[in-house]
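Q: Here's a chain of 196 amino acids. Please give me its 3D structure as tokens.
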Amino acid sequence: MFTGIVEAVGRIKSVDAGGDTLRVHIDPGGMDLSDVAIGDSIAVNGACLTVAALENNSFAADISGETLNCTCGLSLFDNPVNLEKALQFSDRLDGHLVSGHVDGVAEVVQFRQTGDRCLLAIQAPEALLKYIAPKGSVTVDGVSLTVNQVTGLSFEVNLIPHTLQNTNFKYLEQGKKVNLEIDIVARYVARLLNQA
């Protein structure tokens, strides 16, 4: 489990193909790896990946075909990626509960800076929209965000300066694909209502 509070922006250093999986080597940026061990989980752009190797102040993770099919940006050389280590029981929960299981790929339809704030509008897959509600939580590329409004097939969030400075959102632009995870609580509520 994660919180959606990004610890660092890293970069994909290299990608090695091997059968049905890819091994990505990630420069962790400013994230401290001294407490990371092989087998630990790190969210990379919102996808929970398992550390397969630690090497020269970087880590490697294997990505299955299934993960590649429902995410974007994990296999692009030099791509900036949001990183977060798994939540520990003693940690504060500053964002919201994030599983690191990406539900789908969405598209940025508007990215507009207004003063020190930024409006981000994202078109979500239609099947996921029923889980997205105003004032609810959503995870975009591993970042916990609060939804302002939902209109048609898109939803809007406001990005504060801290988020822009400490995530890969500074590289967003219209048309860019992003990883989307809906709120886990919304998923279970919808499931329970469908069984009633």
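Q: Can you summarize the key feature?
A: Residues 34 and 187 are 35 Å apart (CA to CA).
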